[in-house]
Amino acid sequence: MLAMAAKSNKDRAIALAQEQGVGRARDFEAQGIPRMTLRRLVEEGALTQPSRGLYQLANAEHSAQHSLAEAAKAAPSGVVALLSALQFHGLTTQTPHAVWMLMPSKAWAPTKPPVRLKIIRASGEALTAGIKHHRIDGVSVPITTPAKTVADCFKHRSKVGLDVALEALRDALRRKRATTDEIWRCAVADRVATVMRPYLENLP
Fold first, then answer.
1. pLDDT per residue of the chain (204 residues) written in tens, 0 to 9
2. Quick count: other Cβ atoms within 10 Å of Cβ 188?
3. pTM, 2 dp
4. How many CB atoms lie within 10 A of CB 76?
5. What residue segments make up the domains of the chain, in order of their start?
6. Which residues contact 204 (CB under 8 A, 6 or more apart)?
């Protein structure tokens, strides 16, 4: 009877890992799956543990954006932004060495995440405006829209570089990933409208 229960827990754990892509220990516990089952599946090689409290299938095929899914699970209050969002939207040729995320000013940040994180603190509309959720490897990942990403790059130009911000602005408009009006609204939300106005007005 115990063996049947254990098998049932294993099957349910694997099914949940398949569904979620990257699962937190609390997600499994909410379904009545004990941590002992997760530890056993890791020992057996059915699951891997990319970082403390996170689990995923050992043989799962991951997309190129899998690091964004891992970051979203590790820092659930964060939003993928800036260089990582630029790469996701195809607005930069750079490959970030970390996942860039906006996070609330006082929110907890993981100390040993499965991927390297570059955390930028934000509040108000600068944090909440211009966010869209994308499904990546079974995980719902919040990512800033192209327009918000461009405005964020100007707001944090000292961190990403003004040249990156200008390239993102030109590419977003040229590739029709965002309109001037959308970018302007995000610039207002980020309180960088004054900074961005001359660049928007002087674009060819």
1. 344 344 578 888 888 877 777 777 888 888 888 888 888 888 888 787 776 777 877 776 666 688 999 999 899 999 999 999 999 999 988 888 899 999 999 999 888 888 899 999 999 999 999 999 999 988 899 999 999 999 999 999 999 999 999 999 999 999 999 999 999 999 999 999 999 999 999 876
2. 15
3. 0.75
4. 12
5. 2-57, 66-201
6. none
